[in-house]
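ok so for the tutorial part 2 we go from a plain amino acid sequence to predicted C-alpha cells. step 1 is just haveing the sequence, like this:
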Amino acid sequence: MQEDKNLSEIEIEDQKIIDNKELSLLESLIPVVILMGLLAYNIFFVEGQEWFGGYTNQYILLIGGLVAAAVGFFNKVTIHKMIAEVWENWKSIFVPVLILALVGALAGTWLVSGIIPAMVYYGLQVLSPAIFLPACVIIAAIISIATGSSWTTSATVGIALVGIGSALGIPAGMIAGAVISGAYFGDKMSPLSDTTNLAPAMAGTDLFTHIKYMAYTTVPTIVITLIVFAILSGTIDTTGGADISDLLTSIDNTFYISPWLFLVPIAVIVMILMKTKPLIALVIGVFLAAIFAFIFQTDVLSSLSASKFQSVLNAIWTDTQVETSDEKLSELFSSGGILGMLWTILLIICAMVFGGVMDAIGALAKITKALLSIATSIFGLFASTVVSCLGLNVIASDQYLALVIPGKMFKKAYEDRDLAPENLSRTLEDSGTVTSVLIPWNTCGAYQSGVLGVGVGEYFMYAIFNWLSPFTTLLFAALNIKIRQFVKK
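step 2 — the prediction. this is what the C-alpha cells look like for a chain of 489 residues:
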C-alpha cells in the first residue's frame, strides 16, 4: 500500500474514468509501445552508460508523456485537460514524496545515532543464516499485518534486515525480496490497509468477506514463498560464525551499542499502530534519533565533522558514511539522507506526468475496455482483470489506479456472469496491489527500491509472493476453485 493515504483520502466516489470516443485503441497504445521500447533499449543496450546524467528513466517517462500529449492533441484533447490531470496526479503523491524525503532523513539519523548498527549487531547474534530468509518473510508479515503498511515495514525492520543479511553475506536482492514478500502479504491481509479497504469498495463487497475469500489464494502463495526461501537459505554461501565475531567487534569498536537505542524504532512503530499520521511518526523518529546521536554517539559525530551538530545535519540532508575496521560494514553503514532520495522522487514525479496524460486523453479507459471485450469466458474475465491491473501498474504508475479503473470497468461484467463481487476484489488485490512493487517507475517500486537500497531488477525474481500471486489467482480461475457464484436475495 501507499503509506500516504487513509481510505478517506482516496476519494473513491470522486475517481473518474475519462473516455474519449475520438481515440482508437491503436493510438492509445502508441505512447505505451514507445515508452516500453525506450526503457527496454536503456536496460539491454546502454549498459555502463548514463544518459542525461543518470536520470534516464525519468526522461524516458517524460518523452512518453510528450508522445501521449501529441496523440491527445490529434484527438482534440486540450492542453488544459492534460495539465489538470497531471496536476491531480501530482497532488496525490505530495505526501508520499514527503515520506520518501523523511525516510532518507530517518536512515541517516538512525545510522549516526547507532540504531541501525545496533539492529545489525543484535540481529547477527539472533538470526541464523540457515533460517534468515524465511525469518525475514515472517517478521515483515507480522509488522505489516499489525500496521497495515508495507511502506512502514520496509522503512523500519526492512532496512535493519537488509543490513543484517548483507553483513552475513546474503545477496541484498534475496533479502529485499523476502522483506517485500512478507510486507505485501501483511498489507493484503490487514484490515488496516487502505488497498485492502479499497478493493472491496470498488467491487461491491464488504471488508471481512474480502479478506476471508482472499485467504484462499494468498495463504498457499505465502506458504510456497516460505518453502522457496527455506530452500534458498540452505543453499546460499554465507560468511558463517567465524566472520561474525569480527563484524561484532568492529561494530562495538565504532559505535556505542545498547538496547536503549531500540526505544526510537519502538516509538515509531507504536505511533503507527496508534494511527498516528506517517509523516508525524517519521518526523518524531528523526528528531528522537538526532537526540540519541548526541547522547550515545559523540565519538561518531566527532569523526564525521568538526561540529557534532553539523554531522547530524549532514546525516539528515546528504551523504554520510561511518568508517569501521571492516570494509563490508563501512559500505553498509552509509546513507544518502534526503538528497539520496532525489532520484526516486523525480522518478515518481515523471511517472505521474505520463500516467496523468494517458488518463486525460482517454488511453487508459480505451485499453481497459479492449481487454474487457475479449473476455468471452469466466477464465477470460479473470485473465483480463489481471492483465488490466498489471498494465495499469506499468502505464499509470500507481497502484490505486490499478485497483480503481479495473474495479469500475469490470464490476458489471462479473455481475452479468453471476459471479460474487469478492471474486473481483480478490483478483484486484492479487494482481493490482502486489505487482506494483515490481515496476521500477511505479510509486511502490520506486519507494521500496529507494528505501531498501536495492534495485527492482535485483529483487524482482526474489519477490516471490508478489509475482506468484497473479498466477495463483489465474490457476484457481482455470480450475474453478473457490469461484463463488452470486447469491440472489
